[in-house]
Amino acid sequence: MARDPTSAYFVGTDRDRAAFEAGIKLGSILHQYIGVPLTRENATSLERAIEAAARVQPLVEDVEVRIDRKRLRPRGPYRYGTLTEDLLHVEVTVRAGKSKATGVLRYVPELDYPLMYLKAIGGPTKD
Q1: What pLDDT digit, counting tens, does each position of 95-112 carry?
Q2: Which of 33, 42, 45, 49 has the fewest CB atoms within 10 Å around its CB?
């Protein structure tokens, strides 16, 4: 990738930037897609659409979205549900300069919370 034209606006190392960008991507996925109408039949399409939208964001190297179909509870006469936090599992990998960070969004039942965290981070701690 060519030099990032926005890098002058960021303080810290490439490693800091990679971690920051991974968090931004996960937060945007969580808050943008919750409430989308969902059935087992359209879950794969929704996974691919979320991945495609995330891939066009700056610095994204890879993204994988999984929707837990076992937890999906279609309701009402039309038999559909909505995407909720407990159905999402997302991994996003971001590269900034010489550094790479992988962030995860997943529902943690014992916390009853959609946790976002860094799964891996690598690269120089100083630029």
Answers
A1: 999 999 999 999 999 999
A2: 45
pLDDT attached to residue 6: 87
10 Å Cβ neighbour count for 53?
15
Q: How far is CA 11 from the centre of its chain?
A: 23
Cβ neighbourhood burial of 121 (10 Å; 0-12, 13-18, 19+): middle
Top CATH class of 13-122 equals: alpha beta
pLDDT in tens, 8-55: 899 999 999 999 999 999 999 999 999 999 999 999 999 999 999 999
